[in-house]
Each structure stands twice: as C-alpha cells, then as structure tokens.
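Narrative summary of target 7.
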Amino acid sequence: MIPHSKPTIIEKKVILENIKKILNAEYLSENIFVEKFEQKVCRFFDTKYAIAVSSGTSALHLALLALGVDENSEVIIPSFTCAALLNAILYIRAKPVVVDVDLDDFNIDFKEVKKYISKKTKAIIVPHMFGYPAKNIKEIIELGIPVIEDTTQSIGAKIDGEMVGKFGIINVLSFYATKLITTFGEGGIILTNNKKIYSIIKDLKEYDKKRKFKLRYNYKLSEVQAIMGLQQIEKIEYFVNKRRKLFEYYKNRLKNCKNIKIFEPLKNTEPVFYRFIIQITDKENIDEIIANYKKFDIEAAKPIFLPLDKYYYGKFICKNSKLLYNTTLSLPIYPSLDTKEVNYISKITKKILK
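Modeled conformation, tokenized:
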C-alpha cells in the first residue's frame, strides 16, 4: 500500500547518536537542544523570538491568550482546515467565527473575513493550507486586527518573494508526524517579533517555580523531540525541493486528464506542495473514488476530515468549502515518494477517472 501521508525521517544514525548525548547528560526535559532548536527556527524565519511547545494546538492556545482573547471575544477562522483551530479557541471559551475560503487556493477569503468582523473580533487565524500561501494575507493584516499565521503546511512558501509567517504578529507551527517537518510525532512552536507577546507566552507555557500564581500550562517540548526538530529544519530546503519536483512530475503525467483540475501556483506565490490535490470536475462520488484507489493499493484521501462549519454548526454554511469537500481529492506526496510510485498513481488515476 502506498500511504497517503508519511513522516520524512532521514539520517536515523545521527538522531540515535544525539539521543545518546541526552541520555549521558541525563537532561530529558527542556534544555539546551530545545534552545538550539528555537534558535534554528528563528533564523530560518528571520524572527526574533521562538517558544517551542508540545503541539500545534498548544501553540494556538498560548498565542490566543497572549493576544488577550477571552470568553467575550470572537476569533475568525476558515472552514476548510483542521479542528485544532476550533479547539484552541474553545479552550478559552471564546466564540469561533467560521468563514468561507477561496476556491483557487483553499485559503481564507478576504471578503468573508471583512464581512464577519465585529467589535468583539480579537484575532484572525490564517492557515496557509496544503502548502499554498494565503494570497490575501497582506489585505487581512491591513484590517488592523491581530493575525496569527499558521505556517505548519507551508514552511518556506512565499508571497511576492516574502516567506509566509512574517506577516502576522504571531506565527505558529505544528510538528505532528506527517507535517512538513516533525519532532517525533508531536510538538509545535510559536514565533514573534513582539517582546511582550514572547514574555507572556514564555511565562504561560510552564507552571512550575513561579512566585505569583496564575493559571499556567505544561506545554514544554522534550530534548529528544528537539533533536529531531534540529535535523528536520536543517533539511527543509531538501524536503521542499523534492515536493516541488513531485508536483511537476504529477502535473506532467496528468495534464491530459480532462476531467480533473490541478491547483497551479497563483500569481506571485511560491507554494511548497504539502498536498497534491486534484478537483474532480464531473462531480463523481469522492468516497467511491477513494475506495477504488484502495483496490490498487493506493491510499487517497479528502484534503481535510470535515469542514469546520459542518463540524461545529452541524451544517454547511460555507458554499466554497462544501464544494471543495465534495469535489477534491488528495494524492500521496512526500519526500520519500519516488517517481516510479508517482507514475503508478498517475496511471491508476487515469484509469479510475477515465
């Protein structure tokens, strides 16, 4: 079976050698390797401050708290994304406001954001989905409401030559097992150039040995996780280049397939292709198509489990998200996938969608 997603783990011998250093030093919790990892990610994004945490969800949670989001606040999020955004907002008992996305790049629609802003809007979360930069991020920033960018799926992607993650006041990442980079399956990080926000988050992520009590959290990253993170961020250029090559390989083999749409880079953007997504233009049943791929030992999937409007409100209210959910399919793409496998997947795609 060719899996839909797969962690990219390279140079296992180097990882094991570094783990031995941790065991010899007997520091397992957050220490020098976490600090080195934070510094390395800062340099990559050209950002002043980084705080490594236990997951992408904890990164979002702390980011919202640092912006003063509370139970009287509203936070705008896109519908075509994962439930982590929803959960982080609900941790604080704030109100999530789920809005529609753009059909060209799956990302939050600027016009929808503008429509749903109220006096209670304290933050907007903008994920750059599937490796495609959110093209309207600059316009959203100009609305004057704090923006949290989520660059988990788009590390290294650019808009007008500028790397995503540098536009919002905060940038968060998840290092879950199958993301662009991973820290042994879980982990996350928060980046900012704002010293006050950095200080608040640094204080909130650990509850122990504080002179004055307030509610804090246990969101630390371990030394072993940081070891893998250091290696992964050093290889990000290789990971991205491999994904771009695989995208072109897919595109060349499927270009004559008339009933699918391939999502090309939009003007002035440089995606990193976390996912290879096609849209079925003749409205076939996506679940049946996925089942057909399985017969050929290929794991295809819908790009997301369920749009957040359907998940949270119990019904579809975002028409573009509904359309994308019912017509798009995600095919395997990751650095360890080889061209032979892409050839096979492309051949089966033509066979299934003929």
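The mean pLDDT is 96.
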